[in-house]
Automatic annotation (TrEMBL):
The lineage of its organism: Eukaryota, Fungi, Dikarya, Ascomycota, Pezizomycotina. Signal peptide: none annotated. InterPro entries: RNase_P_Rpp40. It comes from Talaromyces stipitatus (strain ATCC 10500 / CBS 375.48 / QM 6759 / NRRL 1006) (Penicillium stipitatum). This is Ribonuclease P protein subunit p40, putative. GO terms for biological process: endonucleolytic cleavage in ITS1 to separate SSU-rRNA from 5.8S rRNA and LSU-rRNA from tricistronic rRNA transcript (SSU-rRNA, 5.8S rRNA, LSU-rRNA); tRNA 5'-leader removal. GO terms for molecular function: ribonuclease MRP activity; ribonuclease P activity. One of its GO terms (cellular component) is ribonuclease MRP complex. It holds the Pfam family Ribonuc_P_40.
Length: 375
């Protein structure tokens, strides 16, 4: 893993991982500890997914993938925090750790609550923290560095002691009823293979009129663009760490322009250099290629399990092709803000097929970590 950071840019980090994609990936074993699937698992909830494909790849395999890939869905519901700790929902979903939930709010400013794998995290101001009577720890808020203005409380609700009637659990119930008692908007997905569990979760929360929503999906046809050299041979040819850093930064910038549908990368682009001096990166040994692209975009609430399934399905379908498709694709995700400082903002995974003589695929993954501008 390479950590490229320097001077003024040290507050915003990009962790870059390069390596082979594990062979014989089982679609049922989606929580792999190996990169690049581990990068996806580090971001449990995201709001935007983009899959950038050359048009020949899209035409050849996307219809097969879409038939097998389930539609991502989520629940939006307005309710108080205490709801998570009562009734069938607590017993059937919170205790087993089968739901991922995030409340509304701005980290570092508002009260923000989340539930992941049965661990309830409560972020709040000092005033509310002291009133709850619960034990937590100070967290960075993006304000003055040495002032402990905000606190976080983490509670593992899967523990046997987290039951009604137990002293410690009753303290949590009291805090939720008397201090953290405002109704807020929640986003919820089920970390389970079957989508039926989402319907069951909605039924358990029926009192609060939950809404089951489908993630918005769109296909965007991109005009023919200039493509930089995207291959593992190009990665390996970099003569130094500094050269590899420059190459990774240039490719990341180009992928960002693709996502923005910028005309600067179009083969027909003509612009005065006074307004823009951007040029698609190229190497001395490889000429720029031109191809049409397709961007597949989902927006809503998606979990790491579904995204891993998307990537695995794509890789398996691509490897089944015997003809020569374009040898690259890029999967990008933008995550919800969870903390005020050094939030995990998202990632991009560029998959690259090896040469015809060498089977398998490799990847370059960027994991983006942000920070408060004020320290």
């Amino acid at each position: 893993m390479l950590d490229f950071a320097e001077g003024a840019s040290a507050h915003e980090k990009s962790y870059i991982t390069i390596g082979p994609i594990p062979e014989a990936v089982d679609p049922q074993e989606l929580h792999s500890k190996k990169a690049p699937f581990s990068t996806i698992s580090h971001h449990s909830l995201v709001h935007t997914i983009e899959l950038i494909l050359p048009k020949d790849v899209y035409t050849a395999i996307w219809s097969s993938i879409r038939e097998k890939l389930g539609r991502p869905r989520y629940i939006q519901v307005i309710m108080p925090l205490i709801t998570l700790l009562e009734g069938d929902f607590f017993n059937d979903f919170v205790k087993p750790g089968s739901v991922l939930i995030l409340s509304e709010g701005r980290p570092g400013v508002d009260d923000v609550f989340s539930l992941e794998q049965g661990i309830l995290t409560l972020q709040m101001s000092r005033d509310k923290y002291e009133r709850t009577g619960l034990t937590g720890k100070p967290i960075r808020s993006g304000g003055r560095k040495h002032e402990k203005e905000r606190f976080a409380i983490e509670i593992d609700l899967r523990q046997p002691s987290m039951l009604h009637g137990k002293k410690g659990f009753e303290r949590i119930i009291w805090a939720c009823r008397n201090v953290l008692n405002a109704s807020v908007t929640w986003l919820l997905i089920c970390d389970a293979v079957s989508q039926n569990s989402l319907d069951k979760a909605a039924a358990a929360l029926q009192k609060y009129q939950p809404r089951i929503l489908d993630c918005e999906f769109e296909e965007i046809a991109h005009p023919v663009v200039r493509v930089p050299p995207l291959s593992m041979d190009e990665v390996r040819s970099q003569s130094s760490l500094a050269a590899l850093e420059d190459y990774c930064n240039e490719v990341s910038e180009w992928l960002g322009l693709v996502s923005l549908q910028s005309p600067r990368i179009s083969v027909d682009d003509v612009i005065d250099p006074y307004l823009s001096r951007y040029a698609v990166p190229q190497s001395e040994s490889t000429q720029l290629q031109s191809t049409a692209l397709v961007i597949l975009r989902w927006q809503g609430v998606m979990g790491s399990r579904w995204i891993n399934q998307l990537l695995v399905s794509y890789l398996l379908q691509r490897e089944l092709r015997t003809d020569r498709l374009s040898v690259w694709s890029a999967l990008s995700a933008s995550a919800f803000p969870r903390v005020a400082v050094e939030n995990k903002d998202g990632y991009t995974i560029l998959s690259l097929r090896e040469s015809a003589e060498t089977k398998g695929s490799s990847f370059v993954a960027w994991e983006f970590i942000g920070a408060s501008l004020s320290t």
